[in-house]
Amino acid sequence: MTDILVRTETTAAVTTVTLDSPTNRNALSSTLVAQLSEAMAAAAADDAVRAVVLTHTGGTFCAGADLGEALKRGLTPEEATREVGGVMSGLIKSFLEMPKPVIAKIDGNVRAGGFGLVGAADIALAGPRSTFALTESRLGLAPSIISVVLLPKMTARAVGRYFLTGERFDAATAVRTGLITAAPESSEALDAELHAILEGVRKASPQGLAASKRLTTAGLLDGFDEAAAARVAESLALFGSEEAREGMLAFLSKQKPSWDASAE
Predict the structure, then answer these.
(1) What is the domain partition of the chain in residue ranges?
(2) Comparing C-alpha atoms, which of 216, 200, 175, 153 is closest to residue 51?
(3) Disulfide-capable partner of 18 in 7, 107, 109, 183 (CB 3.0 to 4.6 Å)?
(4) Tens-digit pLDDT profile for the chain (264 aa)?
(5) Residue pair 99/47 in contact by the 8 Å Cβ criterion
(6) Which CATH number is associated with domain 1-186+205-264?
């Protein structure tokens, strides 16, 4: 029997899609991705649904790709990287193409590919327990595929800092970077902000929502396939490098890689 890793509930014209795999930090395993894709497609096809809220259980919204799960299925590291890249770009594109608003409600950690889901959402709210970090550079990698949606939304100064340093930042900082729409200061305020947004969406017509969303995503979708393919190829090359192998081994063993010249 397949585990249920994504749960859905539709109330008052809104489908809430909950990532429910806290034991692996809601990482994008093949099962979770399949269930998430199915849930999003069902919401897109349901004329009674006006918007989708994407949220999570546990302390992490999404930790990105589950490469370990792909390797356990017998894929080589190169095959796993290629598969994960295709999955990530496919999820991002499906969010952008959905003719209904996708609203991310986060109150936990966002790492790696989790940024792709946040960047692809039309509106993103982050609660007080939220933290963000793009640590790929510390592993000999880069936030390649997710950059397709992050670069147009985050400020140039923000990506110039956080893509390069891997520093952790909070929800208030995420708002200033352009990654997050709003960062309410409590869980209650987060719920109230979401309620206000959803009430606004409920007042809009389906046609009006779809046409308005097309205006906001046209620039992102223009040339998306070519850009995503280039970033997948870049990611594949990086994952196959000696530096990436050393970086990931050091991370797993909680040791410093040879290039780490920090005092910490």
Answers:
(1) 1-186+205-264
(2) 200
(3) 7
(4) 579 999 999 999 999 999 999 999 999 988 999 999 999 999 999 999 999 999 999 999 999 887 777 677 776 767 777 777 888 899 999 999 999 999 999 999 999 999 999 999 999 999 999 999 999 999 999 999 999 999 999 999 999 999 999 999 999 999 999 999 999 999 999 999 999 999 999 999 999 999 999 999 999 999 999 999 999 999 989 988 999 889 888 887 889 999 989 987
(5) no
(6) 3.90.226.10
